[in-house]
Structures are given as structure tokens and as C-alpha cells.
Amino acid sequence: MARLCDDVDNVVDDALAGYVLANPGVVQLAPYKVIVRDDFAAVKDKKVTLLCGGGSGHEPGHVGFVGVGMLTGAVCGNTFASPPVTTILVAIRAVCGQAGTLVIVKNYTGDRLNFGLAAEKAKGEGLDVQVVFVGEDCSLPRSTSLAGRRGLAGVLFVQKVAGALAEAGAPLAAVAAAARRAATSVGTVNVCLRACRLPGQGQAMFELAADELEIGMGIHGEKGWGTEKGESTGAKMAARMVDSILSTADTHNYLPVAAGDRVALLVNNLGGASNLEFSVFVRDVVECLEKGRGITVARLYTGALLTALQMEGVSITLLALSGASVAAAPMEAAEREHRGNGGGDGSAGDEELLDAATTAPAWPRVRAPVNRSALDEATVAKLATFDRSSVHPARAALTPAGTLVRDALLACGAAIDGSAARLNALDAVMGDGDCGTAFSKFSAVLQAALVASDERTAAHEAVLKTAGFPASFGIPVNSSARTLSALGEIAELAMGGSSGAIYSIAFSAAAALVGQAAGDGDGAVARPADWVAAVRAGCHAISKYGGANEGDRTMIDALAPIASSLEALPAAQLTVDALRDTAWPRCRDGAERTKDLVSAAGRSSYVDKAKTAGHVDPGAAAVCVWFTAVVNALTGGSLAWSA
Q1: Which residues participate in catalysis according to the annotation?
Q2: N or C: which end of the chain has fewer CB within 10 A?
Q3: How many other C-beta atoms can be found within 10 angstroms of the C-beta atom of residue 316?
């Protein structure tokens, strides 16, 4: 099967080599799977050093948290497998000096055994080593299982608190005490929508249907305690997970944080959730805690921090900050002695430790409380790009020229609606198949904006508001320049995407030219030559910003011939008949010619030319559709064209 790694059997060694290349400040204790700070030898006799680790596949954990203020070293096993005792012992020997070493271990049987045995051997060699276990999984009910709760992303809070204290010069006893206290003040729940797969394997480690999610999994591809069916939104999922962490039921009661308490929140991407959806979930979690439970999120950390390969899922971790009502272990004497009485009772300082600087590449750079700043609506409104105060005149106020423009635009809207399906089909050959849909959105707003202000209904106003316009917005058809400007606004807001931008650019350039030539006041009508120049200005703007020229298989191949054919005529011959007899055939032929052109611009330029051969470019087809409607409306003709 296709894969990014060359050698599945050596994927961890190869990954560590790549990580070192990209991250100055660390080295590998090759051939062992151990990453350490490159200054570990100079540090270990002056300050307490920290080690953590486990199976690989959780990147950036734990190698990404090696740095000043966090881990001194990370010990890696094979994918989802605990590192061997020999490797762990090498790491301890490397980083443990006179100040001693704290080994932080996630609560998995293999890790407990291997790290524990290595620590005992190190002690036997006279090294000063202490071990802290972290098991904060809140998804499972309390039981008499000897395995205990699994260690999850909460270990990162333990590393940060202990690492900051060690960097500040605290002795090993104080650092270990702080780590133990943090470990008892943290809770995590995992949820996933898709399981992960091991490197080189195409099969997921377990299967979930499209309407299922797994609750309470570990981070090694194993299933959780339950599978739930039914539609689940991010807000519902966030509430479900927070409930598990903060449950006060006798079967759980792991972290009974109450309203009014302060927490540090870590929202972790398990590897495969899109950043877009993940950010929405972060918002949902914060609102669930603060609005739903009255708990203050004092610190917020987000990202893919402790993953399970490419698992499409998330985890929520809460750390009860000093002073919370959670029944965590009190500050031990060693920690209190070092940290003093900064908070009046010796228990303050968690946030200071979280905020302390670190060079660990993967730790989120958060040096302040949750960002709650926002601009007021009035300030933002002043920054609006366009003045959307245009109003379509009442029917009695329409000028003859305005009536012609109105009728031509209505004909465009009807033609677009009738061709939307075909435009989508053409676009599907080389793109995402939404060209007709985008033009239909333009048409809907266009037709609503052409309804006279004194004839407008609630339905028309709803169409306008949905697109972002005020209910009073209309097209001032009595003014040529302002009509073009309003069409540009509709293209931008209603169409969206590249099509909306292209048409908005073209209309804006045309409006500027007509405004200079004929003015932009009510009743300022462009001359025929001005309209021709406006089409050319639109073509130039599209080429300037879109990069397309005639012959590149784009809308320009149908639009530019309209201008060039009319530019060749003397001013006296620029009549509506010229549109029908001269410009329209050139527009049609230009669109047809795109069947044989090779795309050089736009999305279709990335598609195999064999797939586009014989098909009209959808952008060129759209130009021919609306121009045919304009010509028929102005001449009373019945020209027809079909892509």
C-alpha cells in the first residue's frame, strides 16, 4: 500500500532522525530511541532533570516536550509499545546527576513495569531517582481493577508543572511532590469518530459506523468503554465528556470541580480531526464549562499534543487550579517549603508554573489567560468594504434606460436558473461541480434586488438578508455605474468562492471606468462605447488578478471576443443589432473553442487535459448563457445556445 514511511519496521528510528533535523536543541542517544536536550550534561548536576516516554505514535508527545522548562529527555518505544528497560536505563544514566531525576510514567502496565524496573536499577547504581505515575482517565467507573486508570493527555500538565519547578531550581522532593499533586488534580476523557491504523496497515484498529462514536478509548488504538449511536454535534459531545470528568456519582467522582472554580483546559486533537472542526469543538468546550457550569477557564491549551496516530477524535483534560474545591492531595511539605507562601496559604502558583517559559516545541505558546477580546459591532461596521445602501427605484421612477437594464438583468437571472444544472455538470468534469449553484445564488439575490422598493415582500427581504444585504438593498438601474457596482457586491457576497471574486473584480473595474466616463449620479447613463470599454476593463482586471488570458480555457475566451468584436466597429454602428449580429456569434464561438483548448489557468489547469477535451469550460459557458439573455432582452430576439 502507498505510505509515507519507507521502512515500517524502522519507522520510529527514522522519525526520530527527522525530528532531530527539524528541532535544534535536542540530540538522540543513538542507537537508542531516546531524545534529550543537547545541554543535558551541563544541566544535570545543577537542576532536577525530567524523563517521560512510552510507545511511539503519540507525536508530538513525548519528544516534542523535551526542552528547557519541561522534559530533559523522552524515551520512545516502538509504535504503541513500551520502551525496553535497557533503553530507559540508558536515558536515566544520561540525564541523572547530583540534583536527581524525576521519571513521569503514564499508567499502562507495560510502562509501569519497564520504567519502574529501570528506576529501581538506577537507584541500585546510586542514582537519585523518583517515579510519579499519572492515571487520570475519567471515562471508566471506579473498580477494583489492579490496572487502574489509564494515563492520557493529563500527563502534559504534570510535565509542565514539574518542569517549571525544576527549572526554577527546586529540589527533587519538591518537584516530585508537585507532580504528584498535579496528577491527582487532573482528569481526561477521549472520544473518537474514526479509529487509527498502524503504519503500513490499511485496516483501522476497530470500525465505527458513520453515526457512531467511541467514548473512553485509550491512546493505543483500543476501543473505549462504549459505542454510542445517533447524531452527535460538537456541543453535545463536549457536554458528554465534561459530564464524565466532573461527575459526582459514587461510581466516578474523580474531579468534582464546582461552579466558581478555576481550571486549566487542554483540548487535544488525537491526530485526525481537521483543524477547522477542532476549533469549533474548542469553542463548544469552553462554552460548556463557563456558560453551562459556571467554571472559569483560566488557561486554555489546544492542538494535536498527545495523539493516537491519525485517530479522528479529541480529548478534554481539566486541571483543577490551586484553590479549587476538588478533593485533591494537599501540597506536600517539600513542595510548600520550596514554593513559599505566595498565595497566603502555600497553595498558590499553578498558573505561574503553567505560564513559565519553555523551549519545548510542542507546548502551546500561551502566556496569558483565555483570549476574550472582541471588537464591538459598531467598530467592525465602519470597516465594511462596500456601501450597501443602494436602493432599486420605485416602478414609477424608472427611466427608459433603467427599464431596459432592469429587463435585461431579469432575463439574465432566468437564463442562469435554467442553466444551473448544466453548468454544474460541466464544472464536475474538472472541479467541484458548483459553478451553476454559485450563479443560482447570484440570480436569487439579483432578482430580489430588482423588485421595486414599494413592491418588495418578506420573502425578497429574506433572500437579501441571508446574503448579507439590508432588506432595502436594490440595484439603482437608472445609473449605469452604480448598477455595475451593485452587481459586483452581489457577486462578492452571494456567489462566493473564486467565481464571486472574479465577477466582483470585473464589475468593479467596469463600474470605475463607466463612472469616470458618464458619472455615477442617478440618471447617469453610459454611452455604447462606454459599455464596450467597460467589458474590456473587466477583462483586463480578470487577467491582472486571476492570471488568465484569452486562449487559457476560461471565461475570458467568451468574454474578451465581445469587447474585441465591438471595438472594431465605428461608434455609429454600436447598436443593439451589433450585439446580436457581431458580438454574440464571437462570444458563442469563443465558448465553443474551449472544447479544444488546454487549461492554463483556474482549477481545471490541474486536471488531465484528456478529461476536459470535448467539454466547454463552465466559466465560458456561463458568460454565453447570460450574454445570450442580455442580447435577446435588448433586441427582442430568440437566440439560443447550449453547452
Answers
A1: 220
A2: N
A3: 28
